[in-house]
Amino acid sequence: MEIASSQKITTFLMFEGDAEEAMTFYVSLFDDAEVVHITRYGAGGPGKEGSVQHATFSLAGQQFMCVDSPAQHDFTFTPSMSLFVQCANEAEIDRLFAALAERGTELMPLGQYGFSPRFGWVNDRFGVSWQLNLPA
């Protein structure tokens, strides 16, 4: 007997001041994307007034959460956790890679790597890691 669960797992991105800029950038890259909800810190809150206390956005039907943490941390994003995007065609992979690599770091330039006819891996300007793949 299968028991229905209300549990849901959502990717959570923690920024230190540029959550809204990152979220807006990501939503601009994908067709089926939107900011679902955003709550901002007020004048008396622990975070900078107007910064993102909590936001939810979706990319291609997948929901993500993000915040601007008021606390400084000794860590940031790591490529060991990345967002993997199956691209529909060469134009899409080229467009996404160019946009995400701008002011970012290319970990694996777009190319043929044996496991894929066209693949690239990049850390974007916010430190989030993206793997872009064009399936065979």
UniProtKB/TrEMBL annotation:
It comes from the Bacteria. Transmembrane segments: none annotated. InterPro entries: 3_dmu_93_MTrfase, Glyas_Bleomycin-R_OHBP_Dase, MTase_demethylubiq_bac, PhnB-like. Residues 7-132 form the PhnB-like domain. CDD domains: PhnB_like. It holds the Pfam family 3-dmu-9_3-mt. This is PhnB-like domain-containing protein. It comes from Streptomyces monashensis.
